[in-house]
Amino acid sequence: MNICFKGIRAVNPAQNLDETVNLWIKDGAIAHCDSSAPKLDPGTEQIDGKDLVAAPGFFDMHVHFRTPGEENEEDINTGCASAANGGFTGVVCMPNTTPCVDSVAVVELIENKAKGKLVDVKVAGAITKNREGKQISEMFELNDAGVPFFTDDGSCVMCTETLKRAFDYALTRDLLIAQHCEDHTLTEGFSVNESIFATKLGLKGYPSIAESNIVFRDIETAKYIGNCRYHVMHISTARSVELVREAKKNGARVTAEVAPHHFTLDDSIIASYDTNIKMNPPLRDKSDIEALKLGLKDGTIDAIASDHAPHALHEKDVEFELAPCGIVGLETALPLAMTELVHTGVLSIGQLVEKMAVNPRRICGLNVPEIKLGELANLTVFAPNEEWHISTKHFKSKSKNSPFNNFVVKGKQKYVFNNNQVINCVL
Length: 427
What we know:
By secondary structure, this protein is α/β, with parallel strands linked by helices.
């Protein structure tokens, strides 16, 4: 691997870096990174960087690779290929697998399958055993095995007493509790957001308070135990954004992530009955989208995470009410964020890099890669102004359940570098 980008814009908010450089990656490391002309080795591939941006490798802290248990939908090989093709050099896999990630053995199984990949794979641990919301998992052992945070994602820890015990355990090591915020007593059998559209179509609705009520409870519980670290996963409602904003103002150690589909699509699209728009939490209304964008802009929402959730074609090819929730998202996250946030003036490119590369790692307690001489190359290179049509036929994911097929977007991932490997993104 010996590539030099001539005159590329290098952006890394963690270094206060935003300048045009000649960036030479040689043998997996950065051999040159300034405006002077490098003395390149023979055979070095030279690429014009005038329309490109180099950033620390993007990191998705919320993906489902379906290993172990549902490898017909995705596996570590295809998941990592999808992540790299999407411009990501690191991910965190969720624990709602079969068996779930409530033991060190399952963590090791997943990490062993990911060895040698370009994409760094971390694994979140379950808060409770078998994600049943009753008995706390072996959190300390899982933490010793490298688990960056704990969540029963896919399910909410409904019992407040159980959640309180989880925060008690977490506080002793300053561990992070991340919550899928859903009051299941309000959402059983839901298909879409509770709204006029759901009523017209005769579909069971998921009220927005089912999310915000849990956000409020969790923030209060974390504060009561001792200002524990708490993370809101795939935030989707205006009220939830308000609660996180207010908590941060009052000194709470709370963070939040948002998925691209939640700031791109509103629930009016459900009239199509396309099962690829069925997800949890569901698509909300336009006022929620505006609140999410404001939350990204003012720093209330810290990270963008795809919630990549693959499902096989036959699983989605059923009646809307029977279809599973979730869409693939790794390969569309960057272009959707560029189109909906950067090219509309919500975020600068530097702020986008912060949301997709810097903050996710900081939330997970991981080091942020630097773009400087001598550092190992952990980079995402993208073309911010390239317009193109999304086509699921080019996805590396084993599943193709995306509502964004044929969408026109502006901004495209081009190359990823990590672990002495390079991939040219093909989309």
